Task: inverse folding
């Protein structure tokens, strides 16, 4: 039986479909009424694909990453244009504390992409539950990617539930 996941350095569409389905299943409202925040290296496949998928679904999409790890400006510009049609909101910023405020879902990923040397690592932005990061009070679920520099995720708030993926 053939299998296809569509994973490239630039995109990971089937992972995003699964993540959107998870948000739809566990969210209290339709996708276009939900907000999610992605924390991590947003230059490549997961950050860019979540941004594309969220905008296509009309979601409130926040990307929190230091300036050097934000999605490509041309992609963001194209998606902001698309957001005018879908009703999505697009917010790209370096302040993880501000980005997670009011998010229904917080999605974390690595701060260095696979195959990059260790010196590229950037620990400038905290992840939810770490010292210095605001607890996402309304966030019901945290989708976490445990890889390399990550330690056990501390999920803030009694209503939070981690969804781990490897």
Result:
């Amino acid at each position: 039986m053939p299998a296809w996941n569509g994973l490239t350095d630039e995109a990971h569409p089937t992972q995003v479909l699964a993540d959107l389905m998870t948000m739809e299943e566990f969210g209290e409202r339709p996708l276009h009424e939900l907000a999610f925040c992605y924390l991590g290296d947003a230059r490549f496949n997961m950050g860019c694909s979540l941004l594309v998928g969220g905008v296509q679904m009309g979601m409130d999409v926040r990307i929190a990453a230091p300036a050097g790890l934000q999605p490509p400006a041309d992609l963001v510009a194209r998606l902001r244009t698309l957001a005018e049609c879908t009703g999505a909101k697009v917010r790209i910023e370096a302040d993880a504390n501000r980005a997670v405020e009011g998010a229904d879902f917080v999605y974390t990923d690595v701060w260095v992409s696979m195959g990059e040397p260790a010196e590229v690592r950037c620990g400038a932005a905290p992840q939810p539950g770490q010292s210095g990061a605001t607890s996402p009070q309304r966030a019901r679920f945290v989708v976490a990617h445990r890889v390399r520099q990550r330690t056990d995720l501390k999920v803030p708030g009694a209503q939070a539930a981690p969804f781990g993926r490897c």
Notes: The longest helix spans residues 13-26. The CA atoms of residues 96 and 119 lie 22 Å apart. Confidence is low (pLDDT under 50) at residues 121-141, 144-155. The first strand starts at residue 35 and ends at 39.
